[in-house]
Amino acid sequence: MLATDKKAERPLASPSEAPDRDVLIYDGHCRFCTRSVRWIDFLGGKGRLSYLSLHDPAVSQYAADLTHDQLMEEMLVVEPNGTRHAGAAAFRYLTRKLPPLWILAPLLHIPYSLPIWAFFYRQFARIRYRFGRNQCDGDSCKIHFD
C-alpha cells in the first residue's frame, strides 16, 4: 500500500463469524458511526462484540420488527439471548461490557438518569452526519443536510 493511501483497516467481526457475541447494529453509511464502532472495537469490543451495518440484509435476523428509519435513529445492541438495548441504553450497556468504559458506568447508571442520557443521545444522533460531512464520498451525506 502506498504511503498516501489510507491505513488498511482490520475488518470488524460479523455475527456469522462470532454467533455467541452481542451484535452491535450501526449506520454503516455514516463515517462518524463507523469510526465510533471501530473505536468501540479497539476499546475492548474485539472478542466481545460483533458488528452489523443496519444496511445489511442480515439485520432482519435481529430487528425484523424495526423499520429502517427506526434503526437510523439509534445504534442497537442485541445480546445472544435476544435482549435489545437501543441508543443511550446501548451505550450504557457497553459501559458494563467493555472494561475501558467501566469508568463511565457510575455516571451513566445514576438512578433515573437514563431519560436524560437518552435525550442527549437523540440530539447528538440527529446531527451525527455533520461530524463526517467533509469525509463523505461524493454526495452520499448530502441527503442528511437538505
UniProtKB/TrEMBL annotation:
- Name the UniProt key words of this record, in alphabetical order: Membrane, Transmembrane, Transmembrane helix
Question: What positions belong to coiled-coil segments?
Answer: none
Does the UniProt entry include the keyword Hydrolase?
Answer: no
Q: Where are the transmembrane segments?
A: 101-121
Protein origin, superkingdom: Bacteria
| MF terms in GO | protein-disulfide reductase activity
Question: What is an example of a Pfam family matching this protein?
Answer: DCC1-like
Q: This protein is called what? A: DUF393 domain-containing protein
The organism that produces this protein has a lineage beginning with: Bacteria, Pseudomonadati, Planctomycetota, Planctomycetia, Pirellulales
